[in-house]
Each structure stands twice: as C-alpha cells, then as structure tokens.
Amino acid sequence: MEATKKEHELIVSVSPHVKSEETTSRIMWTVSLALLPAFLSGVYFFGLKALFIMALCVLSSVIFEALYLKVVNKKSVIGDGSGFVTGLLLGMNMPASLWSFSPFTVHVPIIASFVAVVITKQLFGGLGYNVFNPALIGRAFALISWPRAMTIWMAPTASVLAMDAKTTATPLGILKEAGMSELIKVFGDKVSLYEHLLTGNRAGSIGETSAIALLIGGLFLLYKKYITWHIPVSFLGTAALIAWVFGQKGALFAGDPLIHLFSGGMMLGALFMATDYVTSPSVRKAQLIFGAGCGALTMLIRLKGGFPEGVMFAILIMNCFAPLLDRGFRSKVFGAVKTAKEIKK
Amino acid sequence: MSSHSTVSLKDQILNGIIKENTIFKLALSLCPSIAVTNNLKNGVFMGGAVLFVQVMVNMTISLMRNVIHPKVRLPIFMLVISGWVTVTQMLMAAFAPDVYAKVGLYIALIVAFASILARAEMFASKNSFLPSMADGLGMGIGFLFALTTISFFRELVGKGSLWGFPIIDTKPVLLLILPAGGFFAVGILMAGFNWINARAAAKAAAKAKAALATR
C-alpha cells in the first residue's frame, strides 16, 4: 500500500524535468576513478611521499569544506565528492618533495587546500559558482608564495618505499635553461626521452608525469561522455601547432611538438583541468576557442615567459573568459523572433 | 542648515569609522589600499596623510562655504585639496624621507581621492565648522584604521615582520605582499569587517526587541 502510494505521488517542480541517473557525486567519483591510473603512476614513481602529499591534500580539502559549511550553517555537501576531487587534483599538481620536515614544507599543501576549497570555491558560492578552477588557484597560490619549495623536483625513485631521492630538473626546466640538445643528452637519445615522457619516469608534479596514464583516464571520461573532445583536442592541437612552428629557436617549422605535448602538465591540464564543467564554457564552439586559447597561452609562457611551465596560468586566464565565450557563441533559440538589428544585417 | 546638524559630534565621527568606512564599506580608494599596504609603516603613514588632508580640507571648505559661488565650487574644492596635499607632501618629505620615497606617488594621488572630494561636496560645504571637522576626523580615522589593519595583516603574514622587525621565523606566505595578495587581503578583511558589523547589528536588534517585549 505504501509503495503504490509513493508511485502515484506527484512531484511538482520547476523545469528541467528530464530525469537522469547522473548526479554530481556520481560524476565526481567517476572523475576520481579516471584519475586512478595517474595516481598509481605518481605513487609508483615518487614513492610514499607522493601518496602522503595527495592524502594530505584530499583530507584537508574535505575537512576545510566541512568546517566552512558548518561555520556558515550551510547544508553539508561533503558526500558529493567535489572536495575530494579538488584535493586529489591539487595533490597531483604538487611536487612530492613537499613532504619534508626540514626544511618544513608540509604546511604548503594544507594552506593550498584551504585557498582552493574555501577561498576559491565556497566564498564564491560553492560548487557551480566558482569562477576559477579551485585546484589550480590553490597551486598558483602555493607556487607564488613558496617559489623555492614548490620547484624542488624529485627524481623518480627506484622503489616505492624509498623516502629519500635526489632532486633534479624537470624536462621543461632543462629545455628552458639549457636547450633541446642538452635535454636529449640527459635522457640518452630522442627515443629514450619520448619513452620517459610517456611512461612518466621523469621529474615533475606527482600526477602530471605519466602521459599514458592520463590518456587512459581521459579516454575513459570521453567514453563515458563526461567530457567532449572539443577542449582537449583544441588545447593540445593549438599547443602542438605552435610548438612545431615556433619551438625551435632561429628556425620556423622545426620544433618538436611531441616533447611539449608530453611534458609538464599539458596532459593533466588539457584532459582534467580545462574540462572542469564549472569553469569552462558549455557551448561547443566556445569550447573550441577556450581550448585554443589555453594552448596558445601555454606555449606563449613556455617559449617566451619567465616560468618553464604555463599550463596552470593559461587555464586560469581562460577561466575568466568562459562566461564571455558562452555568451558570444550562444546557440539560436528555435522559433525565436529576430530582432530588428538582426534583420537589417 | 542640513539635517546633519542634529547628529552629535561623536556619532559623526563614528559614522566615518564604521557605517561609512571608506574602504571596508564604500569600497572607495582601493588603489592605495592595495598598492602601499605591503608593510605596516607605509600603511600607517599613508593613512595618517589622508586623515590630515581630510580634516584640513573639511575645515577649510566649511569656513569658506558661504563665500564660494556654487557654479565654481568644484574647482575651488580641488584647489583647496591640492593645497593641503602639497603641504602634506612637503611635511612628509622633510620629516619621513624614507617613507616618502616609497609612498610619495600615492600621497600626490590623494588629490584625486573620491572620498575627500565627496566629503567636501556632500558634507563640509553644507555644515558648520565643528560637525565638518568631526566628519573629517571620522572619515580619516576610518581610512587610517582600514589601512593599518590591511598593512598589519599583509606584513605579518606575507613577510613575517611588523614595522620592519622580524616576528615570525618560518617561511611566510609571500603572495600577500605581492599586488595580487593585496586583493586577497582587502577582500578577506572587508568580509570580516562586515561580518562583525552584521553580528553586532543583529545583536542590537535582538536587544531592542527584547526591551520592547518587556515593556
């Protein structure tokens, strides 16, 4: 009797009336699953330190979100997993060397998590209202505040349990400081360089190094239709084109696009950061421009800027333009009456 | 006389500090509040300079209000303001040259501060000497208070020192003394200021309600 009553109950609500199995939490946990390969490769190459940093970021993100919601008397939304994803992405964007007690740098991921979750997301109104990608703002805050600690890169360790590792430069750092020939010399030859870049056996942020692991996760999201091809393809395509045309100093059309695509945070940025629902445009044409802008700015910073890597700043800058792009490329409403101005054209 | 004259001098001063705080409430003059507040000393001197100019301008305009022709009042206000700013500049260059070297540009910019011209136009030109002075004092102290709070916060967190003396011995949050961090600091403190005010207002309202109920 109870069940039949429930079945016939009418729900009165405003549109949209489309019902779907998809919920915020389901999307968030699927994204976390897609990040699993990169997570594992990070732990494999950088050991327990990487695991601790990512765990610290996830824990502090979730705790800060819960605390903030409690302080302002809002309903807790911890279950939707967005704090978890933000923390995980933030952790993957940090160097594993931050897990160090002398000099003490463990506070860096904690403060970065606070900036990401509370300042960038909750103060702007919570999930869905943030202008900028929270994990990237957290990282930008940390990079600008502690430039030394955030750029000590661990060389990949031989064993997962190793807590000590020598530091080294990232491939992009070598490329910026010493040039292409030196980069190839460090890794032996070109084939070996590509191999290191693809597998992730190189210095860098925890989750950004393994191009293959990130591609597996990205393709999984594409297959599940959680992201579309527009942003990643235009992002990577533009970056590759610019790397090919201007990548080599003194000669046009002689650069090596593959090195730029597989190094730094390019894959992580294009597949997981730039495709964030909240901070990217939702109109397809606008997404193409958004991705192209990210790619162009990234390469501008890499080739001409002071930092060796520009993915983070490129995405953050394009985040500002997301609403504008959406408005500019809004699709025509079916059956809408043309305005006098449009008819004149 | 305008309606302002019924307000007591104390309330007139408090109005500028809390209810119409230039930076935290009206969100005016944000440029200097971000540009010069990366250390406490600069912030305090800048706030002091604005306080001085605000009080002097209000007093001068109030004394002159009956002889200024309404059609030329704005140029006259500007002349008075720039006159007092020049005095401030000269005093500062003579007695605090090291600070002046850093914030001198922004001292000159006080001429263009919306808050100072606005108080001259809205208040001093319509009110007698004492209320105008109180208003200038309130607005100036409000500004000094805001700049002191912001620069205190930024220097302590961003550099780990206060007035140039080291206080905290760990690696500070460098971002806060950079321009971008100024926006963070002003935003956070503005939110805090308004939060405290909102709570105080709610408490006062509840008290008034309770007093009404017991009557």
Describe this entry's structure for a reader.
Chain A is mainly α and 345 residues long. Chain A is built from 15 helices and 2 strands. Chain A has helices spanning 2-8, 24-71, 82-92, 107-122, 134-145, 171-177, 180-186, 190-199, 211-223, 230-246, 257-262, 266-273, 284-304, 311-328, 340-344, and strands spanning 153-154, 167-168. In chain A, strands 1-2 form a two-stranded antiparallel ribbon. In chain A, helix 2 packs across helix 3 (82-92), helix 2 (24-71) crosses helix 4 and helix 2 packs across helix 9. Chain A is globular and about 65 Å long. Chain B is mainly α and 215 residues long. Chain B has one domain (9-214). Chain B has 8 helices and 2 strands, in the order αααααααββα. Chain B has helices at 9-19, 30-35, 40-64, 73-95, 97-108, 114-124, 129-159, 179-214; strands at residues 161-162, 165-166. In chain B, strand 1 (161-162) and strand 2 (165-166) form a beta hairpin. In chain B, helix 4 runs antiparallel to helix 5 (97-108). The longest helix of chain B has 36 residues, at 179-214. The mean pLDDT of chain B is 88.
- Portion of residues in beta strands of chain A equals under 5%
What kind of sheet is the major sheet of chain B? 2 strands, antiparallel
The low-confidence runs of chain B, each spanning 5 or more residues with pLDDT under 50, are none
Q: How many DSSP helices of chain B? A: 8
Bin the helical content of chain A: 55-70%
The number of distinct β-strands of chain A equals 2
Going across the biggest sheet of chain B, name each strand in turn: 1-2
Please count the helical segments of chain A. Answer: 15
- Portion of residues within helices of chain B: over 70%
Largest interface: A-B, 12 and 12 residues
End-to-end separation of chain B in angstroms reads: 37 Å
Major sheet characteristics of chain A: 2 strands, antiparallel
- Which structural category do the helix and sheet elements of chain B fall into? mainly alpha
**Order of strands, widest sheet of chain A:** 1-2
Percent of residues in beta strands of chain B? under 5%
| Distance between the amino and carboxyl termini of chain A | 63 Å
* N-to-C order of helices and strands of chain A: HHHHHEEHHHHHHHHHH
Overall, the morphology of chain A is globular
